[in-house]
Amino acid sequence: MEKNNVSVSEPEEKPINPVMINNVPYFMGISLLYAVCFTVAFYKNFIGITFPFITAATFIVCWLFLKKNEIAWRRSNWWYAAAIMLLGVSTVLTANWFVIFFNTLGILLLITVFMIRQMYDDRTWNFWQYICSMLFLYFCMVPEAASPFIHFANERKKRKKEEKKNKNIKYILIGILIGLPMLLIVIELLSSADQIFSRFVGDAFHNMGNQIVFSPNLFLVLFLMALGFFGIYSFLSALTQNNMPEWKKKESRQNPVIAITFLSMITAVYLVFCMIQAVFLFTGGRLLPKGYTYSEYARQGFFQLLFLCLFNLILVVLCLSVFRKHKILNGLLLVFSGCTYIMIASSAFRMTLYISAYHLSFLRVLVLWFLGMLAVLMAGVIVNIIKGEFELFRYCMTVVTVCYLLFSFGRVDVLTASYNTAHLGEDMSYEDVAYLTSLSADAVPALSRCEFEHEHSACNTGPYGGYTEDIYGNITGLTLEQDREGYVSGCRRCKLEQKFQRALSEAEGMNWRTFHFSRYQAAKAAEKYFR
């Protein structure tokens, strides 16, 4: 089959790596132990301090797998481990769910790339071959979810002759079934006999029984156990299949005249657009048509430009992969990339105008960060145009990882709240406060420095609508007396206090497993505010 200038060699019967088949008890054991750790980490707690520890546990399992395969870690892969652990730590430092989601996604992708690079020779892979190989591995994990049952059944057949061991296992299981009820009775009696023992041991067993064994939470525990066990086992089993497509460069690529034709058409339009940007936008709007304000012109088409910048990046990478090298094509691609840089600059300039007029928001910071990352990625693409053997995929992985780590540790909600409160001060409107309080708990320490008076009283409650909002934002019609005691819609201080009450309730009951640094900081700031 042909795709993107590459061909896949004819499928060959390659032997499956027997390491898991020959070591079923070993891998079953570490997968089960990992599942227990996974459940302890994520049981009703996705962002607690256990997150970096389960991240480290995942790496330990991968290390044990590589050790069993007698595969040494490549020196060039150590930075993957550092990046993965940093993403795990970042999750404990922020309560922003957008960042937490992409931290988790980034960890999964980096572990996948790390293990592929350890198991396969990827030196000749190009950008799209790498993407296809990652997707191929994920698809292989689906049927491998049945591998624990298959491996266990095969192991039972192999050990059928070892009657003594089988009998011992059977007797151990019988002993556990007899011992469990006896253990519960003994713990109950000792708990009633000694209060110290009851506090440290008895209460833990009671809580486990009430919250897990005899409650609907049992389903959640079983689900997390299954997810942890089958997830890690099927991932490792898919790596042992040794069935990754063997990519090889195809000597004849597509005729570059095709690319030269459509790129010439698009580049001509881009050049006209870039001239307009230079004349009307970058000159401060002095030459704008009559009836057009500078702010109106700057706000036009920002997201369209952002999409085109990303589209241009993908198009250049595809042209480099699909078409044969040609001087005219390379020249067009360089001009095309130059136009993309002008579009990036135009988008960034428009966004700075937004910020100067309407101040910061999470989305505006995200867009500026994304444009900066695109600019660095385009630099790698330009190098790849000039120097064909440049390893573009590794460059892109490095750039995206480093840029995202900066964004993840940047705590954008803190930056947004600090910037807006510093620039608006007492002039902050209720709508501004409402937006800032919609941010994550990261923003609470910055918001706690705001000092507003209550803006409702017996004479002016009417203009605010005569209703209140509870701490969850539910609107309830109340009498005037209740308004004075509740949170009045339209009152900036009430809106802040709602946010601080939520911060206190989210941090309430945190323990060694559910501790979260951002929520802890928010609760401390809220306590100080109410003091």
How is the secondary structure organized here?
Layout: E1 2-3, E2 6-8, H1 19-22, H2 24-42, H3 50-68, H4 78-93, H5 97-119, H6 127-141, H7 147-158, H8 163-193, H9 195-213, H10 217-239, E3 247-249, H11 256-281, H12 294-299, H13 302-322, H14 327-358, H15 362-386, H16 392-410, H17 412-424, H18 430-437, H19 444-447, E4 467-469, E5 475-477, H20 480-485, H21 492-507, H22 517-530
Antiparallel strand pairs: 1-2, 2-3, 4-5
Task: Describe the protein.
The structure is a single chain. 70% of the residues lie in helices and 3% in strands. It has helices at residues 19-22, 24-42, 50-68, 78-93, 97-119, 127-141, 147-158, 163-193, 195-213, 217-239, 256-281, 294-299, 302-322, 327-358, 362-386, 392-410, 412-424, 430-437, 444-447, 480-485, 492-507, 517-530; strands at residues 2-3, 6-8, 247-249, 467-469, 475-477. The strands form 2 sheets. It has a 3-stranded antiparallel beta sheet, with no helix packed on it. Strands 4-5 form a two-stranded antiparallel ribbon. A hairpin with a 2-residue loop joins strand 1 (2-3) and strand 2. The longest helix has 32 residues, at 327-358. The termini are far apart.
